[in-house]
């Protein structure tokens, strides 16, 4: 009887320990699930007691353009995946910034590589709440290319020019430049010059067919117009900016995602820094990789001359060149595409400058626009 009683007690104790173990396992699983984004996170408590804020998934937008070489390389070379670790990277390709920013504002993207004018528009639409610029990506890489018979700005009166999308960075640049030179190109389609926003591939085809007279385009499309279709450069946008530097592509992040998952944003920035360092250290390999990816994403590779020319027109950089942002806003306001907006709070370069410091590199400036 005593043996039977002892066995009963032992069984009860064992069952109790099994129940406790099960509760611990369930609690551990629940603690690693982030229901705010519908995905499992890598959140955990470190030995030092700090809690990781890594997201289960990062949804990233970018273009199949040479001006987005940082993103193209970061994805294809594996720099983003390596830095993100267990966080799943999901990507989406766009033709131009306005559509991409619509996706970000609609909660379909967490981060995006985009031109400054589109970022400004999204910032203004959300009353300064929706996004933060956390890094630069590209300086330069945009040109106004036209038919050989057009000798100067006066010859553009009555002509039709194209841009990637109404309100995108090149669209704003074209309209502002025309206005500065005494010509109108109104958002409603009226004015001295007709501006036809459309897909870049359609622009190349229409130029070849003689339906348009030129276009303000990012790379590689400007180079394709010159080398494939016989266009000539009327304006290299670098000549319009101090020192030839201006933000062509920035990295923006949803404000809510940045607040919830700073560790994931930090990892993305680390991946970008690695990608840009590789582009600088192995330019020939970078050009080949980007060209291979453009073929994969668009169905057509560039010629050797086109990819080389496109890369020569721009510079990969982690610096968002913040001082140029106010000028971009002034251009958009002057052309009637945006209402004047206070830009204070649009930058958050804390994570970028922290990671740059680890490499012994100097901090980049926010031009005083990080705080409201």
Task: Describe the overall structure.
The structure is a single chain. This protein is an alpha/beta fold. It has 14 helices and 13 strands. The strands form three sheets. A six-stranded mixed beta sheet has the order 4-3-5-12-6-13, sandwiched between helices. It has a five-stranded mixed beta sheet with strand order 9-8-10-7-11, with helices on both faces. Strands 1-2 form a two-stranded antiparallel sheet. A hairpin with a 4-residue loop joins strand 1 (33-34) and strand 2. The N and C termini lie far apart (79 Å).
Using brief descriptors, characterize the structure shown.
372 residues, six-stranded mixed β-sheet
Helix and strand arrangement:
Layout: H1 2-31, E1 33-34, E2 39-40, E3 57-63, H2 69-76, H3 79-84, E4 88-94, H4 97-105, E5 111-114, H5 116-125, E6 131-140, E7 142-146, E8 160-163, H6 169-180, E9 194-197, H7 200-208, E10 214-218, H8 221-229, E11 232-236, E12 247-254, H9 255-260, H10 262-281, H11 283-298, H12 304-312, E13 314-316, H13 323-334, H14 350-358
Parallel strand pairs: 3-4, 3-5, 8-9, 8-10
Antiparallel strand pairs: 1-2, 5-12, 6-12, 6-13, 7-10, 7-11
Helix pairs in contact: 2-10, 2-11, 4-5, 6-13, 7-8, 8-12, 10-11, 10-14
